[in-house]
Amino acid sequence: MPIPSRPALVEHLVRTRIAGDVATPRDNNLAHYRSLANGERHYWLGLELGDRWSDEQDVLAVMAERCGVNDDPEHRAGQDTIDPELTVDGLDRMAARLRKAAAGRERVLFATGHPGALLDVHSRTAAALRAVGCDIVRIPGGLTADEGYVVQFADVAVFERGASLWHTHSPQPMNAVLDGLRALDQALPDLVVADHGWAGRAAQRGIDAVGYADCNDPALFLAEAEGTLQVAVPLDDHVLDPRFYEPMTAYLLDAAGLTA
Fold it and tell me: What's the whole-number mean pLDDT along residues 86-112?
């Protein structure tokens, strides 16, 4: 795939609604911000936020700054946005961390709670890092969490239940992987590249983590603001066609120096 320029990528992100006017409505965003502020753990994505973000308006302010949602608290319904320039800024920050991983031939774990959209993004990144000598973590077999299984497909850890790969926000699959590695006396990853509770729980457990996050998933952006998570890339994490993410992945790998 050709490597898009930054302006071309921004245009693509807006056209495919990975950023710009995204599908997630404003009322859904605000409901999630409120739930997080009210202490509902489902929305903490494996992080321990304490009472530091108990004001919904503080959460909104961070989301406006780091994701590009509308900063007007009176805007309660209708369209909301992700700033595509912030998306590309996040990709550049992630690329810098991937470049460091490549230089150090680090041990890297990939995982996704959005296998229907982001599996190929993670898998291509894993392949690029393996090609330059990184050790891509092979998770232990037989792991269970949340009444399902933690399995690995195309180098990416995912949650499986009922013979299907599931969308999950839960941190428990990441706990299962890290605890399983410890039980076998295997090294933990130097870096986790993930999303949702996979990324949040890895960061909470003290592992370098970078991830992708939607505008209705504020926890990872708060974690980046606090320094717990190294990078949160804002994007719609489930657009209609997974192939729409391919130019973004090409840009990321090129910026990280991982393009052959």
Answer: 98
Q: What is the dihedral of CA 117, 118, 124, 128, to 10 degrees?
A: 170
Q: What are the two backbone dihedrals, phi and then psi, of residue 157, each rounded to the nearest 5 degrees? A: -75, 135
Q: Provide the β-strand partners of residue 42.
A: none
Q: How far apart (Å, rounded) are the C-alpha atoms in residues 45 and 168?
A: 10
In this structure, are residues 37 and 63 in contact, taking their beta carbons and an 8 Å threshold?
A: no
- Torsion angles phi and psi, residue 149, rounded to 5: -120, 150
- Give the Cα separation of 234 and 19 in Å (integer): 8
Q: What is the pTM of this model?
A: 0.97
Contacts made by residues 203-206, CB under 8 angstroms, sequence distance 24+:
203/46, 203/47, 203/228, 203/229, 203/230, 204/46, 204/47, 204/48, 204/171, 204/228, 205/178
What digits encode the pLDDT tens for the residues 217-236? 999 999 999 999 999 999 99
| Residue 49 confidence (pLDDT) | 98
Angle at 86 between CA 84 and CA 92, to 5 degrees: 110
